[in-house]
Amino acid sequence: MTTIQGLDIHFYHVKPTNLPNNKNLKVLPLLMLHGWPGSVVEFQKIIPMLTKPWPNQNFVFEVIIPSLPGYGFSEGAVRPGMAATQIAVIFKNLMQRLGFEKFYVQGGDWGAIIASDMAVLFPEKIIGLHSNMCFSLKLSNFFWLFVGTYFPSLIGANEHYSKFFPVSEILSTLIEESGYFHIQATKPDTIGAALTASPDALAAYILEKFSVWTNKTYKKQDDGGITEKFMLDELLDNIMIYWITNSITTSVRLYAENFSSSHRSLKIDQLPVKVFTACAAFPNEILILPESLLKQKYPNIIQYNVISRGGHFAAFEEPRLLANDIFSFVKKIENLTSKSS
């Protein structure tokens, strides 16, 4: 725990230990960011995979995983205005506090948005951005998705057609699954009050997301398929972080803050991310875009992979696949850096 800009910020800081003496391994700082309704619990399985040496890799990671402000053990803001962009500044300052002038950053959900904002605002600090939720909401992308339904080769989407199309099915899913988004972006304290009053309601509200966002077909199962990818204990750990810290209201306020007129007027999301970028597209994510439609937002994509399986909670569901993708991306950058120096 440390205090950044007046807020108590909770974080994991895991350093590699027992490194072999016969290898000249570099230790690289990696900031990993969760989203909603997740927490630092999402990363507990991937931490040892990133902090232990891998065969044929000459580096390991020193991992920093903070709780977002207003989430879990991190203090929430006491005045309006704490959106993703402001959190990006806080986490840049956290990394500086820990002594890291340059570092890698990885994220999904809100973590992906915050990581992108960090890369836009502080490109001199971010060595590379790895995201398991790359997206661009330019209106032209929806036009090209419609065109791609009939002519997928025009947007380079032949190979993974079923992941991107048909657009009508994608839009239907987005409408069906976006009710939570509207209430959290407009009336966060109302839903927060209801969920704060009942642990059963809180558990149901959160677990529904871990069912449908992991695989939309799970909702057809009697138990929502929640044990297909997760253990009940780890799901309860995540719920309990929200319950014992009374942070569900402050967590959902992030939606309202990010879609306030004052924050939208900054137009940060319209600025390109110019640092080296990797996009890991997990097939059961609610919305994934072909690489060609991400190039305007991320002009320096050096790795784009459609992963074999997994959904929205990549580190939680498929830690090994995500770790593989992170190592592959960072190795590319380290090789590029060594050649240029």
From TrEMBL:
Molecular function GO terms recorded: cis-stilbene-oxide hydrolase activity
Membrane topology recorded in Swiss-Prot or TrEMBL: Single-pass membrane protein
Residues covered by the AB hydrolase-1 domain: 29-133
KW Cell wall biogenesis/degradation (keyword) present: no
Location relative to the cell: Endoplasmic reticulum membrane; Microsome membrane
Alphabetical UniProt keywords: Aromatic hydrocarbons catabolism, Endoplasmic reticulum, Hydrolase, Membrane
SUPFAM superfamilies: alpha/beta-Hydrolases
UniProt xrefs under InterPro entries: AB_hydrolase_1 (IPR000073), AB_hydrolase_fold (IPR029058), Epox_hydrolase-like (IPR000639), Epoxide_hydrolase (IPR016292)
Gene Ontology biological process terms from the UniProt entry: epoxide metabolic process
Pfam families recorded: Abhydrolase_1
Top EC class, one word: hydrolase
Function: Catalyzes juvenile hormone hydrolysis.
Family the entry assigns: Belongs to the peptidase S33 family.
Record protein name field: Epoxide hydrolase
Organism: Apis cerana (Indian honeybee)
